[in-house]
Structure formats: structure tokens, C-alpha cells
Design a protein that fits this description.
By secondary structure, the protein is an alpha+beta fold. It has four domains: about 1-190 and about 650-655, no CATH class; about 210-245 and about 505-610, no CATH class; about 255-280 and about 405-495; about 295-395, Roll (Chitinase A, domain 3), CATH 3.10.50. It is built from 28 helices and 18 strands. The two termini are about 35 Å apart. The model is unreliable at about 1-40 (pLDDT under 50).
Length: about 650
């Protein structure tokens, strides 16, 4: 089998796969863990699926590979990594993901066996030449040296497989099993169907503008009505007790007061010499004293990602283009003109004007400034526009402020550093090792430039408050902020407590009324929604304007992708995202905010823009592909859920906890 694979790998496709695997290994971080099998020598089994046992070794390999891949994605794609991992089904704890993948794999293996599927040798070789397949099924082989630019390295592959207790035959069987699983999934996904009506409905939702009627109901009107009812003492007592039991609603937080002694560099008599100033300038000029920052000129290729769009296929396309450009960097300009979704720069071969740090998307800047030389090409990077590939064109070095211009600033910085060091040393002598030296304390507070009373207060997020509430056993604490050092002493403590109901009866009563008003508003909105199916919101407004302060608003034409108009709806407090999901003219929905005292909104679609047949024809195929991706994903998930539901699955919890 190995000789056959090596012979087949001596092709142009094989050489390309080598580059793919190296890039994936470097960019995503699949690094083989040496002698991993030895760590699982006493592997046992991790899960039993319908009586078939999955070895702990398989689970450990899968988990370690996933963990490294997730770390690599977070390093490469920054804030967008979690969303991308979610699209790929890899969000959450890598241990749970690995476990679920193995259960799913075993279930599919069992279904494939029932179908008596056949895989020929050509399919096996083709799959080994497929980087996506290898990444998905055998990530632990990517950096083992088993696959080289000359083909399969038989010795390296045998060594790599041996480390995990696999023979060449085991490897071939694993490839065949993976291909059979893919065939099962293809059969399941093949049942997915997208109708013309579904395509048109998605087009209407995503691309056509709507006009809404929004009827707002004032919460205070419902509160006023609720307060007409009398609340018994028993009801108040029950509410008070329930709220305290559930969320300690009426407990009063601990309060403290104290004294703060403030120190500064002058109080310690520190100074900075000429040598100190010169050394500080040289050590910090790159970080602090740049007159004109370094600038880079670069080319970009943008693969745009629309809001809510499946990112995985776009990333796959970007990765393929990046691999091709690494082989032919000189073609970057040509490829940018043909493929970049940034039409403005595409005309110039993706060329951007010179820019410095802090002027563009942080992930884009990070990728660009990491490039070592002109002509270098970045990894695929995720920005707020989509996936991007960057090529460095030219770099300008930074220019610095003169020492004379920043001398006073440096002198102050050095004095502050010396002061903080001396102040911290003195404080540690006074309160070090949780022992309070009262004599030293009385001496040191004489240096203070100011003494301030800290009034009785609950804990806040200020440094002074946090320090005051961090005091234990009346031993003072200190903190340093800007050019000041502050020593805090505790004066008084009012312990956390629960007031008796009689002391806060009016507060509790108002909370009960708010709860009742909220329930009344919710019930009313349900009834008004039903009424709005046969009446206009103008009629409903007339009926309830006086009683519930109903205010009617008619919106302008608003599209889902028109951020300015969507944000205008949000600014008014309207539930814009939910409104834009209403599908048909006359469709009605109601909404409340997260707070119990939030207003109520009744929304109805008055008009939907007419279908533009030309635009619909242009977007139809793209929409169909998106819907098909969604449906095939759901079909697979439903099929796996069905298999899991009827399966007998036993977990070896002792091994899982390792």
C-alpha cells in the first residue's frame, strides 16, 4: 500500500499538497505531540457505541489536534475566530467536541457497514492528495514529515503511524472508513431540496425594503392601572421572601469608611540625573517618542463576507488563492484585479496608500506589519470586511522626537518611577507579611502631602474603594495611581444585612406593581397581535391611545443591509433585527425589552418593495447555494441526532475526566 501511495504522490498535485500541508501546519498550528501514544499506553476505551468500543488513544489524538487548531485559529483570526469556529462546528470545549466527533464517526461507520459501500484504490489516492480531507481526518500527520514535496516518505509515515499504534494497513483502512462516512453523508445531504418559493422568500427577506407600522405602548400606563389594585400584607410578605430566596433582591451591601493618605514624588524628594534622562530616551524612543510612525504600503485581496453568511467556503477559497500566491508572489497584482471584492483597490492591483499603525483594522495591520520583507505575503486574515490576503510593497522607517523636545517629560517619568519604587518598598515594610508596624505607619504618614476622609460607601469600581474593601483585620492597604501613592486606613464597617419588610415596604410594593404591570402588558400585546391581523394599527391606536398611551410611528423604506436605516430603528428603541424577520405584508409581531419596565411594541409590515426580476435573477444562484448549505447542514445534524437517539452509548467517565 505504501509503495503504491508513494508512486501516486509523484505528481504536480502531490507537490501542491505538500505546500498546503506545510502552510496549514504553520498557520493553524497542527504540531505533532512527540510520543503521544506512550502517554496513552493504558488507554482503555473512552466510549462504547452500540457495543463498539472507541480507544482512549483515538480520543486523545483528536482532542490534542483540535486544541492546537483552535489556538491557531484564535491567533490568526483574532476576534473573528470564535464565530468562524462556530461555522465549522468546533465551538466550545475541545474535549467535548472531540468526544462528539468520535461518537458521530462511529455511528456513521456502522451505517456505512450496513450499506456495503465500496471504495477503490484511486479514491484512496485522490483523498490523500486532498488537503481538506487530510486536515479533517488526519491532522496529527501534517507535520510528521510523512508527506514531502517528492511524494510520501514511507519511512516517516511508518514511524508516525507507529507512534500512535497504527500500521500502514490501519492507515489505509482509516482512509477508506472516512470515505465511506463521507458517502453516507452525501446520501443524506442529497435529500435536501430548495424550492423556488424558498429562494424568492429569502430574496425578499435579505434584499427588499419594507415599511413598518410600529405601535408603542407606555409601560407607565399599565403600572398606573396595576396600582389601582390593593396588595395584601400576605402577598407582600410572600413576594419579599421569594425574591430574597431567589436572588437576594433586598439585601443591603456592606458599607465602609476610612482615611486616605496621599503621597507624590516631591514628598519623597526624588530626582533624575542627565544620564538617567539619556538612557530612558534611548530605551523608550521607539515606544514613546515617535514623531512620525513607520508606514507600510501594501496590496490587498478581499474576499467579502456578508452579515450572517456562511464563512467556511469563503475561507476555503481564500486559502487556495493564498497557496497559489505563495508559489507565484509576482502574480499578486494580477490576481487582485481579477478576484478582490474591494473594487476601488482592485483596479490598482489591490494597491493601498502608505499607512501607519492605528489607522486600519487591527487584524489587517497585525498581518501587514509582521511581513519581514517587500513582496512577502501574509496568511489569510479575518477583518471586519471579510477574509484578506496582504502583500507588503514598501516600508518607511519611523522618525523620532528630539531628546530636547521631550526632556521635561522624561524627567517627570523617571521621578515617578523612582517614587513608586520607594513608596512600594516603604508600604511593604509597614504592612508586609500581614503584620502591621504601627510605629512605621505613624512616621510615614508625616510625609503625606494630603489626608482625605473616605465617606461611608458601598463598594465601587474605583481603586480607592477596592482598596478600602480589601482591608482585612484593620491592616491598611495601598495603591499607586498615575503619579500618586495612596495609603488607605479603615475607620468603620456597616455589615451587609437584610432590612425587615416594614422598613422597605413601599419599595417592595412598587416592585410587585411593576411585576403585575409587566404581566398585564404582555397579555395585552398577545391580544393586540390577534386584533391586528384584521385591523390596521391606526385603528388599534385610536382604541387604546388614551388608556395605554399608544403612539403610532410609520417607518421609511428599510432594507436588512442598510445599516444606517437599521441603526435609526434601534436608536428609537425598536427591535430592528426581529422586525426585519417578518416575512409578509400584514405580518404582525410584538416585542418587549429585557427590563421588566420596558415599553411594549406591536409591529406590522405595511409594504414590501416589489421584486426586481433582474436583480432576483442575478442573486438567485447565490441564494440557492446558501439555502442548500443550510439545508444540507440541518439534514446531517438531524440524521446524526436520529442515530444518537436510537443508539446505546456508554461513556467511560473516569478516562474522560483525565
Amino acid at each position: 500500500m505504501i509503495t503504491f501511495i508513494r508512486r501516486k504522490m509523484k505528481s504536480r498535485a502531490a507537490r501542491n499538497i505538500f505546500l498546503w500541508l506545510v502552510i496549514i501546519a504553520l498557520g493553524i498550528g497542527f504540531i505533532v505531540i512527540p510520543r503521544l501514544a506512550k502517554r496513552a499506553a493504558k488507554e482503555g476505551w473512552v466510549v462504547s457505541v452500540n457495543g463498539q468500543y472507541v480507544p482512549y488513544r483515538d480520543y486523545l489524538l483528536r482532542y490534542q489536534s483540535l486544541e492546537k487548531m483552535i489556538r491557531g485559529y484564535r491567533s490568526q483570526f483574532g476576534d473573528f475566530a470564535d464565530r468562524l469556529l462556530g461555522y465549522m462546528g468546533l465551538a466550545g470545549d475541545p474535549k467535548k467536541v472531540a468526544f462528539n466527533q468520535l461518537v458521530e464517526q462511529t455511528l456513521l461507520d456502522q451505517e456505512a457497514k450496513k450499506l456495503s459501500l465500496h471504495i477503490d484504490s484511486e479514491q484512496v489516492i485522490e483523498s490523500i492528495n486532498n488537503p481538506g480531507f487530510m486536515q479533517k481526518e488526519f491532522p496529527f500527520l501534517l507535520s510528521s514529515g510523512a508527506i514531502t514535496q517528492h511524494g510520501v516518505n514511507e519511512a516517516a509515515l511508518v514511524r508516525a503511524l507507529r507512534r500512535w499504534g497504527m500500521s500502514p494497513t490501519d492507515f489505509e483502512d482509516a482512509v477508506i472508513s472516512a470515505l465511506k462516512r463521507d458517502m453516507v453523508i452525501q446520501v443524506v445531504e442529497g435529500a435536501a431540496y430548495v424550492s423556488e418559493e424558498e429562494i424568492k422568500q429569502r430574496y425578499i427577506l435579505d434584499y427588499l425594503a419594507r415599511k413598518f407600522a410600529v405601535l408603542t405602548f407606555d409601560f407607565d400606563s399599565f403600572l398606573k392601572e396595576a396600582k389601582k389594585e390593593k396588595i395584601s400584607k400576605a402577598a407582600l410578605k410572600k413576594f419579599y421572601g421569594t425574591q430574597n430566596a431567589l436572588k437576594k433582591r433586598y439585601w443591603v451591601a456592606e458599607k465602609r469608611s476610612g482615611k486616605a493618605y496621599v503621597f507624590d514624588p516631591k514628598s519623597y524628594g526624588v530626582s533624575a540625573s542627565e544620564d538617567d534622562i539619556k538612557n530612558y530616551y534611548e530605551d523608550n524612543k521607539m515606544r514613546k517618542y515617535v514623531e512620525k510612525p513607520a508606514e507600510i504600503q501594501a496590496r490587498r485581496i478581499l474576499f467579502k463576507v456578508a452579515e450572517g453568511q456562511d464563512e467556511a467556503p469563503i475561507l476555503e477559497k481564500a486559502n487556495q488563492v493564498q497557496v497559489d500566491l505563495l508559489l507565484n508572489p509576482s502574480k499578486f497584482e494580477e490576481v487582485a484585479k481579477k478576484m478582490s471584492d474591494d473594487k476601488e483597490t482592485a483596479e490598482k492591483g489591490g494597491l493601498l496608500p502608505f499607512f501607519s499603525r492605528g489607522t486600519r483594522n487591527k487584524e489587517f495591520e497585525k498581518a501587514t506589519f509582521m511581513l519581514k520583507a517587500d513582496g512577502d505575503i501574509s496568511k489569510v486574515v479575518r477583518t471586519d470586511e471579510g477574509f484578506e490576503i496582504v502583500q507588503r510593497v514598501k516600508r518607511k522607517m519611523p522618525e523620532f522626537k528630539s531628546l530636547k523636545a521631550v526632556k521635561a517629560e522624561i524627567k517627570s517619568a523617571i521621578e515617578n518611577l523612582k517614587f513608586k519604587r520607594l513608596f512600594t518598598r516603604d508600604m511593604n515594610k509597614i504592612i508586609g507579611k500581614r503584620q502591621f508596624d504601627k510605629k512605621r505607619f505613624d512616621e510615614i504618614i508625616k510625609k503625606a502631602v494630603k489626608k482625605e476622609d473616605v465617606p461611608l460607601q458601598a463598594k465601587t469600581e474605583t481603586k480607592r474603594s477596592k482598596t478600602l474593601f480589601g482591608i482585612r483585620g484593620n491592616i491598611p492597604r495601598f495603591y499607586v495611581e498615575d503619579d500618586k501613592g495612596v495609603l488607605v486606613q479603615l475607620s468603620d464597617v456597616k455589615k451587609r444585612h437584610l432590612p425587615v419588610l416594614a422598613d422597605i415596604e413601599e419599595m417592595v410594593k412598587n416592585d410587585v406593581y411593576e411585576m403585575k404591570a409587566s404581566a398585564k402588558l404582555n397579555k395585552f400585546l398577545e391580544e393586540a397581535k390577534t386584533e391586528a391581523k384584521t385591523k390596521s394599527l391606526d385603528e388599534i391606536k385610536v382604541a387604546y391611545a388614551k388608556q395605554y398611551g399608544a403612539i403610532l410611528d410609520k417607518t421609511v423604506w428599510t432594507k436588512k443591509n442598510d445599516k444606517e436605516k437599521v441603526n435609526a430603528l434601534r436608536t428609537k428603541g425598536y427591535p430592528a433585527d426581529q422586525m426585519l424577520k417578518i416575512e409578509k405584508v400584514g405580518g404582525v409581531a410584538f416585542y418587549r425589552g429585557a427590563q421588566e419596565t420596558s415599553e411594549g411594541y406591536l409591529v406590522k409590515v405595511d409594504e414590501i418593495e416589489k421584486v426586481n426580476d433582474k436583480e432576483y435573477g442575478q442573486k438567485k444562484d447565490t441564494i440557492k447555494k446558501e439555502l442548500m448549505r443550510e439545508k444540507t447542514k440541518v439534514a446531517k445534524e438531524d440524521f446524526i441526532a436520529f442515530l444518537r437517539k436510537k443508539a446505546t452509548i456508554k461513556t467511560n467517565k473516569d478516562l474522560i475526566k483525565r
